[in-house]
Design brief:
The chain is of the alpha+beta class. The protein folds into 3 domains: 8-195, Histidine kinase-like ATPase, C-terminal domain (Heat Shock Protein 90); 216-330, Ribosomal Protein S5, domain 2 (2-Layer Sandwich); 376-600, 2-Layer Sandwich (Ribosomal Protein S8, Chain: A, domain 1). Helices cover 36% and strands 22% of the residues. Strands 1, 2, 3, 4, 5, 6, 7, 8 and 9 form a 9-stranded mixed β-sheet that branches. A 5-stranded mixed β-sheet has the order 10-11-16-13-14. A 4-stranded antiparallel β-sheet has the order 19-20-21-25. The longest helix is centred in the C-terminal third of the chain and has 19 residues, at 436-454. The N and C termini lie far apart (86 Å).
Length: 600
């Protein structure tokens, strides 16, 4: 076959295939250009998900006629003044955005620079430039891209519905807005949600306001501040409490030198930092801002600039994990306020229509019904003795002595246990409801980790060793970590083909079902394979032990046991949530309770 040069317009269309995948890609490139032009207000509007129209208006520096002529040429840019690709200080820099967009849309640019007497308009149709026209645009730049992919109709079939494409555009704008709090953003669309973010002041407080605008006040109320530094690299931002989690990672915003990215390095570091607090299918919300010397990060590794490469990825990963873990440890006793508000709303009847009992509901068939619930309801109630009967200050004195301000213990004193599952505790300004299983699961897990780090988990020898039969896959998985399991208090030995012998187990677990425990651990190790480090696997083993052998729902506790549980929660890291990210307690303030009864 004969080798020939490609047509320039075809070259632009091929480049557009890499840079402009969907309407959101075009919006991202154009908004980044506006930010690089030092705009203080950016207004975005789209129609039909961006297929029919994309309009970006900014009040930035604008362009002269000469600059506008060059801006739509391939590989022409103002973003690399000295030609040094290792020192990129702008968002857009490839010089392909405008010509790529012009190759697949009907593009009109109206712009005026600050030192020009009037503005100029340039129209490009299917890659063909028209004549310049003088216009009366007051300041900055207006760009309109119409009929996306009209010149390449095959690309249209890969687009999603209008609402989906609109949501993708909105997500791009939100991610850029999070990094530039001092810039106002407005977004209007004929399908989906529109928004208008007012500009915020520079500095940390402005960043907090912008985060609240984008992620909502609920996130702001249930987040912890991140502030760490290492080797001239800083990491700031906010991360949600473990109990304020989501089913996906869409609400994770990560920035490197102001550039929004989606990188596996950060995804893995975030998951590792929250591993002790969240189930594998739950994700935190967060906004992290990493600032570093641009020479140690390569942003030229992805056509859409969504991924980056660091000279020392281990340093960045360690910084992210360490900063998040320190912040989580600092706020380890906090439980999300969302749960308390939900409880108040339920009590107030806000969601009564959702929780109404079905017509055929019968208390006698309920698993919560007392065993002696007969026709004489009051008599049955009187026959149930209270689980705790101690005044708050008396109970606290009994448990922690005459310490200063003993009436102000964070979790108060146990007053009762209901349904043999929840502990009701009275504090000086309200009450606390504790899930006894979730709370003890966290306490047991932290105790096991502490023992492992110090001298190894204390063991107890079994009077009669237990034989556990396993299939070949699970047997192989558990055989490779027998020595490591011994440090966790589980002493195993091979016992012929297809079985292991349990000789010792963690003393803190007491009398347990060893066959069930070993089977669960083998399942866990076989499922994860080599995808996780051994240390993380062992933490999951400890978490499994804690979950299966903590105080179960349905066990009645005495008053001293309940108060001992509360006191230990107050001194244990991460006690605000169990190992799966669920809250261990909910606190209701007295003022909220009084509102329910119309006292305030």
């Amino acid at each position: 076959m004969v080798v020939r040069r490609l047509d320039p317009i075809l070259i632009d269309q091929i480049a557009a295939g890499e840079v402009i995948e969907r309407p959101a890609s075009a919006v991202k490139e154009l908004v980044e250009n506006a930010l690089d032009a030092k705009a203080r207000q950016i207004d975005i509007a789209i129609e039909q998900g961006g297929r029919k129209l994309i309009r970006i208006i900014d009040d930035g520096y604008g362009m002269s006629k000469e600059d506008l002529a060059l801006a739509v040429e391939r590989h022409a840019t103002s973003k690399i003044p000295d030609g040094d690709l290792t020192n990129i200080l702008t968002l857009g820099f490839r010089g392909e955005a405008l010509p790529s967009i012009a190759a697949v849309t009907d593009l009109t640019i109206d712009t005026r620079s600050n030192n020009q007497p009037h503005s100029y308009k340039l129209h490009i149709e299917a890659g063909q430039k028209k004549e310049f026209v003088a216009s009366n645009w007051p300041r900055g730049t207006r760009i309109e891209a119409r009929a996306l992919f009209a010149a390449t109709p095959a690309r249209l079939k890969f687009l999603k519905t209008e609402r989906t494409e609109t949501a993708a555009v909105a997500d791009v704008i939100k991610r850029l807005a999070m990094a530039h709090a001092q810039v106002g953003f407005s977004f209007a669309a004929d399908a989906g949600t529109s928004f208008d973010y007012a500009s915020c002041e520079d500095g940390p407080e402005g960043k907090r306001r912008r985060i609240a605008q984008v992620l909502g006040e609920e996130f702001r109320a249930n987040s912890i501040e991140i502030d760490a530094a290492r080797d001239d690299i800083t990491l700031t931002g906010f991360a949600s409490l473990p109990t304020h989690n989501r089913g996906n990672a869409q609400m994770q915003f990560v920035y490197v030198n102001g550039r929004p990215i989606r990188d596996k390095l950060f995804t893995g570091a975030i998951r590792a930092a929250y591993m002790d607090f969240l189930a594998h299918d739950r994700h935190p919300s967060l906004a992290l801002y990493l600032h570093c010397d641009p020479r140690i990060v390569d942003i030229n590794v992805h056509p859409a600039k969504a991924e980056v490469r660091f000279a020392d990825p281990g340093l960045i990963r360690g910084l992210v994990i360490g900063a998040l873990k320190q912040a989580l440890a600092r706020e380890s006793h906090r439980s999300t306020s969302t749960n308390a508000r939900a409880a108040i709303n339920l009590l107030a009847g806000k969601y009564a229509h959702r929780n109404a009992a079905p017509a055929n509901w019968d208390i006698h068939n309920s698993p919560s019904a007392p065993g002696d619930f007969g026709q004489n309801h009051q008599e049955a109630f009187l026959n149930i003795p209270p689980s705790a009967d101690a005044r708050p200050h008396e109970a606290i004195k009994q448990d922690i002595g005459n310490a200063p301000e003993i009436d102000y213990a964070p979790l108060g004193a146990a007053r009762a246990q209901i349904h043999e599952t929840y502990i009701i505790s009275q504090t000086h300004d309200g009450l606390v409801i504790v899930d006894q299983h979730a709370a003890h699961e966290r306490l047991l897990y932290e105790n096991l980790k502490r023992q492992r780090e110090q001298n190894g988990v204390a063991k107890q020898m079994l009077l009669i060793p237990v034989v556990v039969e396993l299939d070949s896959v699970r047997l192989q998985a558990i055989s490779t970590v027998i020595q490591e399991l011994a440090s966790l208090g589980l002493v195993l030995e091979p016992f012929g083909p297809g079985a292991v012998l349990v000789r010792e187990s963690p003393a803190i677990l007491g009398d347990i079902d060893h066959k069930r425990l070993i089977a669960n651990i083998a399942d866990l190790l076989a499922e994860e394979g080599d995808t996780r480090g051994l240390s993380r696997q062992l933490d999951r083993v400890l978490s499994t032990c804690a979950c299966h052998y903590s105080i179960r729902a349905g066990r009645r506790l005495s008053a001293p046991e309940m108060n001992a549980l509360l006191r230990e929660m107050e001194t244990t890291p991460g006690a605000g949530q169990c190992n799966h990210g669920r809250p261990t307690y909910i606190e209701l303030k007295l003022s909220d309770i009084e509102k329910l009864f119309g006292r305030k």
